[in-house]
Design brief:
This protein has 368 residues and is of the alpha/beta class. It has 14 helices and nine strands. An eight-stranded parallel barrel has the order 1-2-3-4-5-6-7-9, surrounded by eight helices. Helix 2 links the parallel strand 2 and strand 3. Helix 1 packs parallel to helix 14, helix 2 runs parallel beside helix 3 and helix 3 packs across helix 6. The longest helix has 19 residues. The radius of gyration is 20 Å and the shape is globular.
Length: 368
Amino acid sequence: MTTAEIRGETKGTAPVPLSVLDLVTVGAGRTATDALRTSVTLARQTETRGYHRYWVAEHHSMPGVASSSPAVILAHLAAHTTRIRLGSGGVMLPNHAPLVIAEQFGTLEAMAPGRVDLGLGRAPGTDGATAAALRRSASLHEGADDFPEQLAELTRFLDDDFPDGHPYRRIHAIPGPIQGTSPGGVQSPHRPPIWLLGSSGFSARLAGSLGLPFAFAHHFSSRNTVPALDLYRESFRPSPVLDAPYALIGVATLAVDEEKEARRQVRAAALNMIRLRTGRPGLIPTPEEAEAYEFSVIEQDFVDSWQADYIHGTADEVRTRLDDLQKRTGADELMLTTHAHNPDLRLRSYELIADAYDLPRTGNDPQA
């Protein structure tokens, strides 16, 4: 693992590398199969348009989000791409045994050498009852509180470097380094770099103290973005992984040919979020359903706040706001996530943004 596997390359006129966060959203009237097919199409499209990495995020018990198994989805995407980095944004570490994650991502690394990122979060990615079912335990706070210890254990499994006398000294994550030290073994020079994800200061401070790259969820915690990034940079200590801080932020974006359509789609996404936060998760509603819905005063306040943080409009408008956000936060990379009921609009959005920044087309792009 090298710094080059973490730091992205700026392309075109973009201020920093651009990447993709895919929640594999399922709209009303569509199936999970439809959503996963869209993800394959989107991964291949963004690879050809110069986006740096493509992440999927672990969520559970949400009908409108079909990304409960990031490792499975990433394996499928690896089979349909050749260059773009693939990763989790993220895997929720307290939901899993560290050895299981090390094995899953070791397998992904073997499938796509030098292209895999392991982003980790400490939130459950769901409600408390579902988290308890995942973890087979009602002690949910224990998992979050033990996050640094779980992270250390996972790192040792990935590096196969438990010290003598440790109870796990003779346990090896496979695929992994042990294969290179076995008779006749040849070890891959790569192992997935670990990223810490967060929406508050805890992971920012931890990532900085460990010298790890940091990803902040600006798309749903925008008020905390600058304080968290400042804390990350202040806490940063150089490590074998990074000699200087490297932070990306997730940004909700939608570029369209007509600004009116952007507003319609964002309003539907806001209705979906209201339902989720009030314990009524469902499929992504259509814009028509959102237009017919009568928002309460409190709900309309949420919609207004959501629309203010969601960068949407024409490609030029989106580019201008992304440039301003990057300058304000100093983010080293922008990871764009797009919520729209219509999958064609999601695909079109990434294409419009790529054009707005003059990102290069590459070899397997039919339009190259």
